[in-house]
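Notes for week 9. Today we move from apo structures to complexes. The key idea is that a small molecule is not decoration. When we ask for a structure prediction with pyridoxal-5'-phosphate present, the ligand SMILES becomes part of the input, just like the chain. The input block below holds both the sequence and the ligand string. Read it once before you look at the output, and try to guess where the molecule might sit.
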Amino acid sequence: MDHFQLRDGVLHAEDVPLPRIAEEVGTPVYVYSRATLERHAKVFREGLAGVKDPHIAFAVKANPNLAVLKVLQRKGYGADVVSGGELTRALAAGMAPDKVVFSGVGKTHAELLQGLEAEIGQFNIESEEEGYELAAVARRHGYNANCALRVNPDVDARTHEKISTGKRENKFGVPLDRAAEIYGALAAEDGLTMRGVAVHIGSQLSTLEPLEVAFEKLGRLIAEIRAAGHAVTHADLGGGLGVPYKAGDTMPSPAEYGAMVARVTADWDVQLSFEPGRVIAGNAGVLLTRVIRTKRSGNGPPFVIVDAAMNDLARPAMYGAWHDFDAVEPSGERMTAHIVGPICETGDTFAMDREIDALSAGDLAVFRTAGAYGATMASSYNSRGFVPEVLVDGDKFAVVAERIAAHAIMDAEKVPDWLA
Ligand SMILES: *Cc1c(COP(=O)(O)O)cnc(C)c1O
């Protein structure tokens, strides 16, 4: 459930009519709802009622906006970060360092050191090589790193291939059949405390079964590592729960997920952590856009050309993803149209042959479920600048990321003297 609802014929974010935001901030603009974020954070936590003392780390890459992180920090969430930049953001949002988990296959020397200096809670090591490097950096600088070993369970998450991360051929984690041996080798390194194991098999999962298979494999690995004489006190089960992008889609609920986790992990005797991203932020945001014009196309449906484009919301171009598209002030009339942005790429298409609310030039509309992997994936392609972000709270709202205009990006460039 989200707080983007029609009231008296006008789409609101909580108590704020979206036309007000369009007028004051301009379009395109991402609009997030605090109440929705908090609701999702609560529902996810309640889903884990059967798990003792779970640690929940929001996957910052889903929505790294500082205000969004602050909302979640106030709800007791930690952060799962995958770069030094995300670590900086999590700490800036007030997240306790010991609630930060650092994942990612390509942490640089500088990023490893940054994590050590911040004394983060856990490094999720994604290769044997990374483990040795982290140990060396930790020893050289006088730190000790708490670590989990991320394993690749070779499970097909049955999601889009570009967001599947748990198959043998994906770059993430160490192979399950070598994991116990690598864990043992790293446990012998000064500078590291190997304390757990981690999995994350992909994103936008629409069934629990692949997760359950992966968790069962992880459970057997824990037993194997313990049998070899090493301690395992933590297990990180990653993120991945899908969200409904299309009205009527059904997804496993956090409660069903939590019940499965409680059942599968009942005898693990570890502290569990979770890294939800999309399920927290996805339906807590919309991308508000204005129709520039409509264009007839031969005998086919017209093109509705909106002022948002693939640089603002990349998912449709990148993954062929579906976002529901609704008028802000629907008249009740419907039309079939292609929805496109202004960018000079055929890929800048949000939908083909879509039945939508009738729209004409100047009308406002939203792409729904744009709160995760939306603004964070934006680029300035076609010199369009970066789209602003707004957070709504009841009847008030604030710009939580300014629009970065095309000229501001140009200001960072220069023509060298020898060319002038
Ligand atoms: C992206 C990512 C997540 C979050 O995935 P969602 O599908 O958004 O829940 C969690 N953990 C890791 C390691 C990730 O890379």
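The longest helix spans residues 209-227.
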